[in-house]
């Protein structure tokens, strides 16, 4: 595996390029970070995969519109060059993330955590975290389904990414109601 591939695989997603903006190669980013002003600034460096090629791209200029960054990337000067990056993830190495206060965690730290109920019933493992800060939910793969579990203190009682465990106390019916559409159609 090439050095860029190792960096890519170990990188943390902090945004996705939604579309081009204007004719000078700028792109609009859907940020996937709680710190967009820190992450999206002039001089920031991201790993971007385009057509199976992983590149480092430096932000040359940035401004925000309706909470989303509009970014000019190094070496991208036309709408056609920018179009090649639409849909691409922007990643940074995990070491570049700032330390969070106790009891806080990054989404990528939850992937792979075992999920069990307060009474010890193992449900499965987290395969994704959907939503934003105001409304996140865990996607938990069980033996036969995928479940959506709201990521709120009232339900997720103990989260320990270091131990790789999440203990939940679901209200009555939650586990039956939140089976994903994909897993319902497989029945």
What report would you give on this structure?
With about 190 residues, the protein is mostly beta strands. The protein has two domains: about 90 residues, Elongation Factor Tu (Ef-tu), domain 3; about 80 residues, PRC-barrel domain (SH3 type barrels, Roll). The protein has five helices and twelve strands. A hairpin with a 4-residue loop joins strand 7 and strand 8. The N and C termini lie far apart (about 40 Å).
Uncertain parts? 182-187
- The assigned CATH architecture of the largest domain is Beta Barrel
The spatial strand order of the largest sheet comes to 1-2-5-4-3-6
Q: What's the gyration radius in Å?
A: 19 Å
The CATH superfamily of the largest domain is RimM
Overall 3D geometry? elongated
Distance between the termini: 39 Å
Number of helices: 5
Order of helices and strands: HEEHEEEHEEEEEEEHH
Q: Which sheet architecture does the biggest sheet show?
A: 6 strands, antiparallel, barrel
**Helix proportion:** 10-25%
Q: How many individual β-strands?
A: 12
Domain count, please report it. Answer: 2
Which percent range describes the beta-strand content? 35-45%
Which CATH class of the largest domain?
Mainly Beta
CATH topology of the largest domain: Elongation Factor Tu (Ef-tu), domain 3
Q: Return the structural class.
A: mainly beta
Averaged pLDDT, please? 86
Tag the structure with descriptive keywords.
single chain; Elongation Factor Tu (Ef-tu), domain 3; elongated; SH3 type barrels; 187 residues; mainly beta; 2 domains
Give the topology.
Blueprint: H1 3-10, E1 11-21, E2 26-31, H2 36-39, E3 45-50, E4 53-65, E5 68-73, H3 79-83, E6 89-93, E7 114-117, E8 122-130, E9 137-141, E10 146-150, E11 156-160, E12 165-168, H4 174-177, H5 181-185
Parallel strand pairs: 7-12
Antiparallel strand pairs: 1-2, 1-6, 2-5, 3-4, 3-6, 4-5, 7-8, 8-9, 9-10, 11-12
């Amino acid at each position: 595996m090439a050095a860029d591939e190792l960096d890519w695989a170990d990188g943390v997603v902090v945004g996705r390029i939604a579309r081009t903006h204007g004719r000078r190669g700028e792109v609009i980013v859907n940020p996937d970070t709680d710190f967009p002003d820190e992450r999206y600034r002039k001089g920031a460096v991201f790993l971007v995969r385009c057509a199976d090629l992983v590149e480092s791209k430096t932000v040359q200029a940035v401004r925000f519109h309706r909470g989303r960054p509009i970014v000019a990337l190094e070496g991208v000067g036309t709408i056609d060059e920018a179009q090649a990056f639409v849909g691409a993830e922007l990643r940074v190495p995990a070491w570049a993330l700032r330390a969070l206060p106790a009891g806080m965690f990054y989404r990528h730290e939850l992937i792979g955590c075992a999920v069990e109920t307060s009474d010890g019933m193992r449900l499965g493992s987290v395969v994704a975290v959907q939503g934003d800060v105001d409304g996140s939910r865990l996607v938990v793969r069980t033996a036969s389904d995928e479940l959506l579990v709201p990521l709120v203190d009232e339900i997720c009682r103990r989260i320990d990414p270091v131990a790789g465990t999440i203990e939940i106390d679901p209200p009555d019916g939650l586990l039956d109601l939140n089976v994903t559409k994909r897993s319902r159609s497989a029945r």
